[in-house]
Amino acid sequence: MKKKVVFVTFGVAVAVFLGIQAIPVPRTNPPVDSDISAPPEVKAILRTSCYDCHSNETAWPWYSHVAPVSWLVARDTIVGREHMNFSIWNQYIPEQQADLVAGSLRRIKRGSMPPWFYTIKHTDGKITPQKLAILEAWAAKFQN
Ligand code: HEC
């Protein structure tokens, strides 16, 4: 009897897992309209740590194709792009650009960007003290 319950529960779980894979997930990379201009060492950091959620050049890894993780990844990308999108950089007015750069520094220092779960898989996305120093020097002079 107990065995049967386990078996049925497992079967239902597998069916649900397979079923949710059929739900469409928006994984789009719209064209890049413009891009933030920054020195190569700064750009490299932003690309490695931020572009997956804050640009139209998102890399969609295999787990971004497996629900329910795919839903979380897609949501982060949609919401992240809404808040700041380096691929439409020239559509922001200079004040917005300056705010976004200052806000980025604040969030990096606070440790909220990149989000902790992002760096579990993307260990190279962590902002080390050396990388922070590079970003700080750049942000201090930022004007556009
Ligand atoms: C895993 C996806 C992800 C990554 C990687 C990521 N962000 Fe974000 N970011 C988000 C999401 C989602 C939001 C909106 C929700 C919030 O404010 O927390 C956001 C919001 C922001 C905002 C607020 C913009 C505003 O004023 O509305 C800034 C600034 C920011 N991120 C900077 C960065 C920087 C800089 C990096 C890289 C060092 C980075 N983020 C990496 C997902 C991400």
Describe the fold and architecture.
- The chain has helices spanning 2-20, 40-49, 51-54, 69-83, 94-110, 118-121, 129-141.
- It is mostly helical and 144 residues long.
- Helix 5 (94-110) packs antiparallel against helix 7 (129-141).
- It binds heme C.
- Heme C binds next to helix 3, helix 4 and helix 5.
Task: Explain the layout of strands and helices.
Layout: H1 2-20, H2 40-49, H3 51-54, H4 69-83, H5 94-110, H6 118-121, H7 129-141
Briefly summarize what is shown:
This protein is mostly helical and 144 residues long. The protein contains seven helices and no strands.
Overall average pLDDT: 95
The largest pleated sheet is described as: none
Q: Please give the radius of gyration in angstroms.
A: 19 Å
Q: What level of helicity do the residues show?
A: 55-70%
Order of helices and strands: HHHHHHH
Taken together, the total number of domains comes to 1
What class, by secondary structure content? mainly alpha
List the defining traits of the structure above.
7 helices; 57% helix; mainly alpha; 144 residues; binds heme C; single chain
